[in-house]
Write a structure and sequence with these properties.
- This is PPM-type phosphatase domain-containing protein.
- InterPro entries: PP2C, PPM-type-like_dom_sf, PPM-type_phosphatase-like_dom.
- Residues 110-407 form the PPM-type phosphatase domain.
- One of its GO terms (molecular function) is [pyruvate dehydrogenase (acetyl-transferring)]-phosphatase activity.
- The structure is a single chain.
- The protein is α+β, with helices and mostly antiparallel strands and 407 residues long.
- The protein folds into two domains: 1-20 and 32-49, no CATH class; 97-391, PPM-type phosphatase domain (Phosphatase 2c, domain 1).
- It is built from eleven helices and 13 strands.
- The chain has helices spanning 2-20, 32-53, 78-86, 146-164, 173-196, 198-203, 209-220, 272-281, 312-322, 364-367, 372-383; strands spanning 90-93, 102-105, 116-124, 132-142, 222-231, 236-242, 246-252, 258-262, 289-290, 293-294, 303-304, 345-350, 357-362.
- Strands 3, 4, 5, 6, 11 and 12 form a six-stranded antiparallel beta sheet that branches. A three-stranded antiparallel beta sheet has the order 8-7-13. A two-stranded antiparallel sheet has the order 1-2.
- The longest helix has 24 residues, at 173-196.
- The radius of gyration is 33 Å and the shape is globular.
């Protein structure tokens, strides 16, 4: 690099004296600048001329002409894809919960470290009859994994506590369903309250600064939550959704085809029901939802995400005292927080034991690529004994992100 710069200077120096010589045979005494340029040229002319006259050096050369067909490296093979997807896979047989035979799961991270978490298992039935309920959950984290980490550890204990406060489930199905919905909602909201509201008390505590920062992290990060509870006594599947993960039920019809039944609706700025709810809660804030986002955030409900929930004054205080993220202002017009809630939208579905069925739960990473019916068809083919081992041809159009910019 240094030698190359010297060549450039040699070329410039050699040109400068020519500019001063207005006549080819002038006898005028050269100026001081002229003498200085001559001296400079003489000092560096030898290496400079070597660079200019040499015929070969060891600098890489790029040769060849472009071709119409690029020889791109091949993508992973089918076996390699299977291996990648199977690295985090699990499968569990269920023996003592009537109506559930087996469940499977896997996870493929889109970033490192992965911000998403999941859980699965049994919890005591609030009926207090010694039976067990099944539960599964997917936590799609964003702006860090801390909120999803906390949900993985604490959401089921909060739910179990809330469900356990019910003395008994009413015999009336609709009343029992309402009681369960209220208990699930309370578990979700109590946990988010602990994350968001307890931050003020935490900042005033006497614990060391580094411990405070660590405990505040779940409030600054965020996460969606999709949770399912299955009650074998009533054959009811309760699905609670906060965010844009999705649950879809696949049921086999009399004609042998699989029907896709959505059990949750994505809660984003594209969901008109959510937009209307927010506009009612924050009248006059026309720029609150724009391009499918709520003050820049892709979801309209979430755990954590304190900047969409705390007052501006408290956000500024946290920024000053703990170097937290900057408030959403002035980029966004924040007037009347909170704009987000962790309150789930809950559905309850009676599972028909005479019809083969399965449940798919996944974050938006899957649903960005597949429709509900495409996902159900693929799982249905895989479950059919006659289809096992057969090549599954994709039934969907090639994907690109252009569809997100429509409308």
């Amino acid at each position: 690099m240094f030698q190359f710069s010297r060549v450039i200077r040699a070329r410039l120096s050699r040109g400068i004296p020519r500019a001063h010589a207005s006549h080819p045979y002038s006898t005028k005494v050269p100026s001081s600048n002229f003498r200085r340029n001559i001296a400079l040229f003489g000092f560096i002319s030898s290496p400079g001329l070597w660079w200019l006259t040499t015929t070969r050096d060891d600098v890489p050369r790029f040769e060849g002409s472009p071709t119409t067909q690029l020889n791109l490296p091949p993508g992973p093979s089918k076996d390699e894809v299977t291996q990648i997807v199977s690295e985090g896979a699990y499968s569990h047989r269920v023996d003592n919960v009537s109506g559930v035979d087996r469940y499977y799961g896997t996870q493929l991270a889109s970033n490192s470290p992965c911000e998403d978490k999941f859980l699965h298992g049994k919890l005591p039935s609030p009926r207090n009859d010694g039976s067990q309920w099944m539960t599964w959950a997917v936590f799609d984290g964003h702006a860090g994994s801390q909120t999803a980490d906390l949900l993985e550890k604490q959401l089921v204990p909060f739910l179990a506590h809330s469900l356990g406060q019910m003395k008994s489930l009413p015999s009336n199905d609709s009343v029992a369903e309402e009681s369960i919905h209220n208990a699930i909602t309370k578990g979700f909201m109590d946990l988010d309250k602990a994350i968001i509201d307890d931050a003020a008390e935490l900042t005033r505590s006497k614990i060391p600064l580094h411990e405070k920062v660590k405990l505040l992290a779940p409030a600054y990060a965020g996460s969606c939550a999709l949770l399912s509870l299955y009650d074998p006594v009533s054959s009811k599947l309760h699905v609670a959704c906060t965010g844009d993960s999705r649950a879809v039920l696949g049921q086999k019809g009399p004609d042998g085809k699989w029907e896709a039944i959505p059990l949750s609706i994505d809660q984003t700025g594209y969901n008109m029901g959510e937009v209307e709810r927010l506009q009612k809660e924050h009248p006059g804030e026309e720029e609150m939802v724009k391009n499918g986002r709520v003050l820049g955030l892709a979801v309209s409900r979430a755990f954590g995400d304190s900047r969409w929930k705390w007052s501006l004054e408290f956000q500024k205080e946290m920024k000053q005292n703990f170097n937290g993220p900057s408030p959403l202002t002035p980029r966004y017009d924040v007037r009347t927080p909170p704009y987000l809630t962790a309150e789930p939208v809950i559905t309850s579905t009676k599972i028909d034991p005479t019809r083969p069925s399965f449940l798919i739960m996944a974050s938006d990473g899957l649903w960005d690529m597949l429709s509900n019916q495409q996902a159900v068809d693929l799982v249905g083919k895989w479950l059919e004994p006659s289809e096992k081992g057969m090549e599954l041809e994709p039934t969907y159009e090639p994907f690109d992100f252009g569809q997100f910019w429509k409308e």
